[in-house]
Amino acid sequence: MKQIFSLLIAFYITANLFSQNITNICPPNWWVEMKDSYLQLMIHGDNISAYDIKTNYPGVKITSATKVENKNYVFVDLVIEPNTKPGKINLEFTLNKKSFTQQYELKQREKRIIPYGLNSSDFIYLIMPDRFSNGDMANDSISGMKEKYYGRENLTARHGGDLQGIINHLDYLKDLGVTAVWCTPLLENDQAEWSYHGYAATDHYKIDARFGSNDLYKKYADESHKRNLKVIMDIVPNHCGSQNWMILDLPMQDWVHQWDTYTKTNYRTPALVDNYASNYDKILMTDGWFDKHMPDLNQQNEFVANYLTQNYIWWIEFAHIDGFRIDTYTYNDLQFMIDAQKRIFNEYPDFGMFAETWVDGIGVQSYFKGDNNLNTNYNSLMPGLTDFELLWSINNMVEKPFGWTDGVGNIYLKLAQDYLYGDANKNVVFLGNHDLSRFYSVCGEDFNKMKMATTFILTTRGIPQWYYGDEILMKNFTNPDGRVREDFPGGWPGDAVNKFDANNLEGKEKDFFHHVKILANYRKTSLPITQGNLMQFVPFDGVYVYFRYTDTQCVMIVMNSNNKEIQLDTKNYAERMSGFSKAKNILTNEQFNSLTTIKISAMSADVYELIK
Ligand code: CA
Predict the structure, then answer these.
(1) C-alpha 356: how far from its chain's center?
(2) How many angstroms does the Cα of residue 211 sit away from the middle of ligand 1?
(3) 23 C-alpha to ligand 1 centroid (Å)
(4) DSSP for 334-379?
(5) Is 327 noted as a catalytic residue in this protein?
(6) φ, ψ dihedrals at 599, nearest 5°
(7) Where in the chain is the domain with CATH 2.60.40.1180?
(8) Over the stretch 399-408, which tens digit does the pLDDT of each residue have?
């Protein structure tokens, strides 16, 4: 009896996977009642293009089956009519009067727990999953995968961190005041080396087994949503891994940008906006490869475009993703990105998105914001950008003394140019990420500057984003970049100290952790900061004052970038302060019953909630 039962299970599993002639179908399933009735299946199998394909599932029509250069692929266009019932379609393949059947599942769409989208009430926490926490030692090495676990000393190798490790610390993030988690890519990267970073996908529909599984990713998303934490997926449309199964058996030669010899991009985004740019530079920017091990996908090929776009919709629907961070946005075919975004917004209006725009110059950065006020023929439709321009100002603030265009003067000058953006509240504001030197090192391990910059990103306009471990003052410079991707202490069984437990923090670490926690949690409940307006005053003598306000509420932030305490006369700020007579210092809980003058310590920022 037991044997028959096992046989039945084996049959059931096989029936759900591929027939012997088929090695892959992308997407692996779809859903009924999507707004867009169109679906293109990419079917891979030995000589599969020679077969005729039919189906007789009610509501589903095959409108075409396209053969391409490589006989191992066929692209099947389907229309799934409204009111089609969920179930398994039988796709019937016939060649020389011999047939086989492949099942393809159309699932019922599931209800979401929280609505998707990102806005300025969020606080995003960025995790490099391999370096955050190892919740499952059993998956550190996977047989059959190219890169094994060699130990944690090597900064370029895998350290064993995984999805279970993140799930185990969702309460830690919630407690810190985080509302959204962005993990660097979790898709399979079965590359021989450097596979931990995740930006070289070898299977777009599979979570890397060393991080977990698709089911575990779904569980991670569900557990996040139960805690009101949003899930941000890092998508990489520009390139994939050289060992990707599609690259190893290219559907067509122009699936990727082909060059006679390896040709890298010039990494020069300005070439895309420059009135004087050569075509040579423009093409090199977009079609050159980001790295030797990362083939540049040709998104002007309509099959590539469909493949990628459906992949993003599949993940949103499968795991209830709330937003995308889009890697190397400016290196993509810009029209492809617009078309892909349109299809995503069609299914999920107001879906959260922000684009990596690692550029210099506000005129370059704002070009990529969909609602910008520039007079160009290009509209990216992109709601948010990673605000590198503001980061350069924050760096200036901690590196240079106050001046007309330096120190807090630079912050003022940068924000004064927000008129270029449209709604700058969708810009993502940060002190660091996985590619940048840790901010505590950037500011010369100056504790006061670290706190001041943190206060700034948590109270200015935009969506603040935090890099894992900065809350416990992790430090180091890039070069090699592994130095800024060190393991979170306590994330691995047997670590000498567990810094996820605030009781184990000491001195400045403890002080700073509470600084972040107090402000992040205060921010959550503050309408002026999350939804209100910003007013800044021209800085003078190294003092910068700005307000976040609604019609009835007001929060005042005073930054003193001098090396001495100051006594600030508040009469110049009557425009925002009139009607308020008292204030509470959010960081210290002190109450002030007079606002005529405010005392601010050297190199610090205070946050005052004004009271009537
Ligand atoms: Ca592991």
Answers:
(1) 9
(2) 6
(3) 28
(4) HHHHHHHHHHHHHHSTT-EEEE----SSHHHHGGG-TT----SS--
(5) yes
(6) -95, 130
(7) 531-611
(8) 999 999 999 9
What lies within 8 Å, CB to CB, of 517 at 6+ separation is 175, 176, 177, 471
DSSP string, 110-134: PPPSS-----TT--EEEE-GGGT--
Cα of 161 vs centre of ligand 1, distance in Å, is 5
DSSP annotation of 239 reads B
Q: Which residues are within 8 A (CB) of 420 and not within 5 positions of it... i.e. 6 or more apart?
A: 362, 363, 366, 372, 373, 374
- What is the CATH code for 531-611? 2.60.40.1180
In angstroms, what is the span from residue 197 Cα to ligand 1's centroid?
Answer: 15
Could you tell me the two tokens for 377?
A: 């023929």
Say which CATH topology domain 14-107 has.
Answer: Immunoglobulin-like (2.60.40)
Tally of CA atoms within 13 A in the half-sphere of 30 that contains its CB: 27
Total residue count of the chain as it appears in this document: 612
> pLDDT tens digit string along 477-535?
998 989 999 999 999 999 999 999 999 999 999 999 999 999 999 999 999 999 999 99
Ranges for all domains in the chain classified under CATH 2.60.40.10? 14-107
Q: How far is the CA of 210 from the centre of ligand 1 (A)?
A: 6
Q: Token digits for 446?
A: 């100056």
Rounded Cα distance between 319 and 222, Å, is: 8
**C-beta contacts of 93-101 below 8 A and 24+ residues apart:** 93/19, 93/21, 93/48, 93/51, 93/52, 93/53, 94/51, 94/52, 94/53, 94/54, 95/50, 95/51, 95/52, 100/19, 100/20, 100/21, 101/19
What's the whole-number mean pLDDT along residues 571-590?
Answer: 97
Q: Using alpha carbons, list the distances in angstroms from residue 285 to 13, 321, 332, 585.
A: 46, 30, 9, 49
Identify residue 453 by its one-letter amino acid code. A
First-to-last C-alpha distance (Å) of the chain? 78
Q: Is 435 exposed, middle or buried (0-12, 13-18, 19+ CB in 10 A)?
A: middle
Does this model's pTM top 0.90? yes
Within the chain, all domains assigned CATH 3.20.20.80 are found at 124-251+300-529
* Annotated catalytic residue within 130, 136, 327, 470: 327
Burial code (b: 16+ CB inside 10 Å, e: under 16) for 13-50 equals eeeeebeeebebbbbbbbbbebeebebbbbbbbeebbe
Which of 356, 470, 486, 606 does the annotation list as catalytic?
356
Q: Which two tokens stand for residue 376?
A: 């160009």
Mind listing the pLDDT tens digit for each residue in 377-433? 999 999 999 999 999 999 999 999 999 999 999 999 999 999 999 999 999 999 999
Closest Cα partner for 48 from 90, 13, 76? 76
Distance separating alpha carbons of residues 134 and 489, to the nearest angstrom: 11
Fold of 124-251+300-529: TIM Barrel (3.20.20)
In the block, which residue shows the tokens 């890519």?
185
The 10s digit of each residue's pLDDT in 192-217 is: 999 999 999 999 999 999 999 999 99
What is the pLDDT confidence band of residue 18, given thresholds at 50, 70 and 90?
Answer: confident
Distance 160 CA to ligand 1 centre (A): 4
